[in-house]
Amino acid sequence: MNLFLQLTISGMTNGAVYALVALGFVLIYKSSDVINFAQGELLLVGAYLAFFFVAQLGLAWPIGVLLALLVAAGLGILIERLVLEPLIGEPIISVIMVTIGLSSLLRAIVNGIWTPRPRLFPSFIPSTDVHILGAVVSADRLWAIALSFALLALFTLFFRRSSEGIAMRAVADDQQAALSMGISVKRVFAIAWSIAAVTATVGGIMLANIIGVSGDISRIGLRVFPVVILGGLDSIPGAIIGGMVIGLLEAWTGGYVGQGLNQVLPFVVLVLILMVRPYGLFGQEIIERV
Amino acid sequence: MESGIYHTTYEADMALRRTPIQKVRLAAVIAFLLIFPFFANSYYLTLANQIGIAVVGALGLNILVGYTGQISLGQGGFLAVGAYTAGLLATRLGVPFWLTIPIACVVTAAVGGVFGVPSLRLKGLYLAIATLAAQEIIQWLIVHWDAVTGGVEALVVPHATLFGFNLNAGNSDFHWYWIILAAAAFTTIFTVNLFRSRVGRAFVAIRDQDIAAEVMGVNLFTYKVLAFAVSSFFVGLAGALTAHYRLIVTWERFTIETSITYLAMIIIGGLGSVSGSIYGAIFITLLPALLNSLGRSLSGVVPGIAGLIPMIQQGVFGLVIILFLVLEPEGLAKLWRDVKDYFRLWPFSY
C-alpha cells in the first residue's frame, strides 16, 4: 500500500510537470493550429534565462524570474513574427518542419552560450521532503502540482472572461469569421506564442529545479505528445488531466512492471487513442471520414 | 529565340530526358560517377558512400511524404528495421549479404505496411504523431528485446563476400562505392518510372485530394498501405546497406534525429521531386562535413572554435531548414529550375 501511495504521488507530480509543458502546446495549437515541436526547447531557453538572471547575474529571484518571463514573452513574439507568420497557409509538413528546425537552432544557441554541462539550479523553490500519508515527496514537486492547477484556473478565466482570450477562441474557431469581426489574427498568434513561451519558462524553471539545468530539459518536449493527444490537442483541462494520467501510468508501470516499460507505454497509449478517439478525451470532435 | 520546350511527337513527350542538353548532362554525371572513385581518397569515398545511402533513404521517404502526402517521422525506425534485419541474418544465421539485403527490404516493407494501416484513419498532423510513436516503439523494442537484437550492445556484422571476394577487406570504401552506386541508381530509376505508372499517379492523386482520388476509383486503403510499403522497401535498403558497409549496427544511429535529418533532406531538396531528393541528400550529408573542415581551418584565426563545431553544425542545420521553408519552400530543385529558366531565356528573361 505504501509503495502504491508513493508511486501515485510521484506519478502525479511528474504529471503536473507534463501538464505545465502541455499547456503551452495546447495554447499554440488552439489558436493557430500549429503543432510546436520546439516546445521542449522553449522550456530549455526559459530555464537557462532564469539561471542566467538569478545565478549568473545574482539578481533577487523574483526580479530574475520576472525578467526571464519578459524575455521569453519577447522571444515568443519574435519567433512567431519571423518564422511562423511567413508559413501561414502552407502545408502541415512545412509547419512541422519549421518548428523542428527551430528546435535545432534554439538548442544550438543555448548550448553555444551556456555549454551543455549540467548545472545546479539556484534553489529558491524549497525542495525539502514532505510526508503525506506516509509517502515522501519533495516540496518542489508539490509546487509543480499547485502551479499547474493555478495556471489552469488562470487560463480558463483568461479564455472565458478577457476579450483577448475570447478573440483567441474566435480565431481558433474560424479565422475568416474572426477577421471579419475585426479581430487581428496576427496579434492573436503573437499573444499565443508569448503566453506559450511564458508557460514554458515556468515549466522549465520547475523542471530545472527538479533535474538541474542541462540539455536534458528539452527531451520532455517529445514525451509530452501522448499527454496532449490523450487530453485532446485543443483542450486546456485535457492537458492537465492527460498529464496526470500519463504521469500515473508511467509511475505505476515503472514501479510494478519495470523493464523500462514506462518509457514506451505512453506511446502505446498514444497509438491506441489515435485509433479509437483521435480528438482525445476533451478535444473538439471534428469528424471527417475518408 | 526559344520560349519553352515543345514536343511534336508522343515519343519525345514521354522520354525521360527530353532535350539534348539533358542527355549531355546525364552522360557527364554518369561519366563523373564512374571516374570519381579512381581519383578520390578514402575520405571522399566515405562521403560519397554516405551520400549514396542517403539518396536511397531520401528517395524512399519522398515517395511517402513528397508524393503521397503521408507525413512520416518514423524514418529512423524503419532504417533500424532494415539494418537490424540484415545484420541479424548475417550474424546469427550466416546468410550471405546478397540475400540479406533483399530480405531486409521485404521485411521493412512489411513493417512499413503495418504502420501504414493507421494512415487510413489519420491524416496530416495526427499521422505525423502516430509515426513518431512508431519510431519510439521500434527504438524501445530494439533496446529492450536484447535476446534478439543484443539491446544496447552494438551488433557486429561479419564481412560481406561476393563470389568469394571479401568486400570489406582492403579498400572497402572503393568496393562498396560500386554496390551503393548501383543501389542508388536502381532506386532513382525505379522512382522516376513509378510516377509514370498507374500506381504512382494514384499516390499523387491521394496527396492532392484523397476524397477526389477515392471517387475516381483509387482504393485509398490499398494505395496508402502500398505507399508505406514501397517507401519502406527503399528505406530498408538504405538501412541494410548501412549495416553491411559500416559493419556495426547500434540503435543510436536510428533515433528521431535520423528521421529529422531525412525529412530535412527532402524538404531542402524539394518535396515530390526525384532530383530534389538527390540534391537534398548531397546537401545535408555534405553540410556537417563542410562546416567541420571550415571550423578546423579557422581554428588558428578564431580560438576555441573547434569546441563549438557540433553546436554550429546543429544551429546551421536548423537555420537552413527554417530559411528554406520561409524563402524557398519548393527547395533546391526549384532553385535549380529557376537558374536554368533564367539562362534559357537570357538575356531577355522577362
Q: Mind explaining what this structure looks like?
A:
The complex is a heterodimer of chains A (290) and B (350). Chain A has 290 residues and is mainly alpha-helical. Helices cover 73% and strands 3% of the residues of chain A. Chain A has two domains: 19-221, no CATH class; 224-290, no CATH class. Chain A contains twelve helices and two strands. In chain A, helix 2 runs parallel beside helix 4 and helix 6 (163-173) crosses helix 8. Chain A starts with a helix and ends in a 14-residue tail after the last helix. The model of chain A has no long low-confidence stretch (mean pLDDT 83). By secondary structure, chain B is mainly alpha-helical. In chain B, strand 2 (161-162) and strand 3 form a beta hairpin. The mean pLDDT of chain B is 86. Chain B has one domain: ABC transporter involved in vitamin B12 uptake, BtuC, CATH 1.10.3470. Chain B has a two-stranded antiparallel sheet with strand order 1-4. In chain B, strands 2-3 form a two-stranded antiparallel ribbon. The chains are: A mainly alpha (290), B mainly alpha (350). The A-B interface holds A 35, 83, 86-87, 90, 92-94, 96-98, 100-109, 111-112, 222, 225-226, 229, 233, 259-260, 263-264, 267-268, 270-271, 274-275, 278, 288, 290 and B 65, 71, 118, 120-126, 128-130, 132-134, 136-137, 140, 143-144, 210-211, 214, 220, 256, 260, 263-264, 267, 271, 308, 310-315, 317-322, 325-326, 329.
